[in-house]
Amino acid sequence: MKPFLFVTDLDDTLLGDDSALKALNRKLKQHRQQSQTKIVYTTGRSFGSYQILAKAKSLLRPDALLTSVGTEIYFNAEPAELDPEWSAILAQGWHREQILAIANAFPQLQLQPPSEQNPFKISYYLCDPIAETIIAQLKTALAEKGFQVKFSYHAGQDLDLLPPNVDKGLAVKLLRSKWQLATSRTVTCGDSESDIDLFSGEENGIIVGNAKPELLQWYQENQRQSLYHAQKAFAAGILEGLQHFAFLPKC
Ligand SMILES: [Mg+2]
Fold first, then answer.
1. Which residues of 29-40 are buried (b: 16+ CB within 10 A; e: fewer)?
2. Range of 42's domain?
3. How far is the CA of 250 from the centre of ligand 1 (A)?
4. Which of 141, 162, 183 is the endpoint of a domain?
5. Measured between alpha carbons, how far is 8 from 15 in angstroms, rounded to an integer?
6. What confidence tens digit (pLDDT) does each residue in 64-104 have?
7. What three-state secondary structure class fits 249?
8. Based on CB atoms within 10 Å of each CB, which residue in 110, 131, 218, 237 is the most buried?
């Protein structure tokens, strides 16, 4: 058995069907024991929220964990070690205090609690009906001051302001070179628009059967052999994809 790098989103990708998760975990655990395969989770959740979820769902211990929309890479989840190399990449061109001051001047933006903030993520609540207008105004205000910021608006209420270098695909590249695993031995899995970064490189990609319409739309426009749209949902879709790419045997 040859090792591979397995990268997956959690909510509605790995998680959603507990019995399929159990079956997949058994196969992945065995593969890791026998061949040094690496398991990486990526999530929009904060590290604290991940820890609660990991216990509730009996997740396998990951070799690396990418939390808070890609702004943190942890190794050895217990005890957690934040990767300084990734933090240094994100620090380039990121001016948190000045960006925060500009955004705070918008009364429509309500700062989320401290548990949702970190050195490379500023998070607000913003109601859907006015979101488009406010985001456009904020983008203009930041650009006028020369700040480059990535915007992520999701769930009709959460607005994240992120460093220009945040890119889950770039994080996967970093992990690949750290563990010296080829693109052809790497596979990423996701269900939503926020996972597109994971599918934009040369790596193999699995789009689970329950994927959101926005990701399916992107897939229709970007189909290629290294992307697989599974029939099955959640962890069963991941297993189907891993067997399709022959990372795991069919039985
Ligand atoms: Mg998801």
1. eebbeeeebbbb
2. 5-88+166-244
3. 26
4. 162
5. 10
6. 999 999 999 999 766 788 899 999 999 999 999 999 999 99
7. coil
8. 237
Give the length of the chain. 251
Q: Distance between CA atoms of 49 and 123, rounded to whole angstroms?
A: 15
Residues 152, 200, single domain; the answer is no
> Per the structure block, which two tokens stand in for 124?
């607000």
Residue 251 lies in a domain: no
CB 43 within 8 A of CB 10: yes
Considering the domain architecture, whether residues 196 and 104 belong to the same structural domain is answered as no
What is the CA(159)–ligand 1 centre distance, in A? 16
Identity at 229, one-letter amino acid code: H
**Residue range 112-160, pLDDT digits in tens:** 999 999 999 999 999 989 999 999 999 999 999 999 999 999 888 999 9
Inside any domain, residue 250: no
CA of 141 to the centre of ligand 1 (A): 31
Evaluate if pTM is beyond 0.85.
Answer: yes
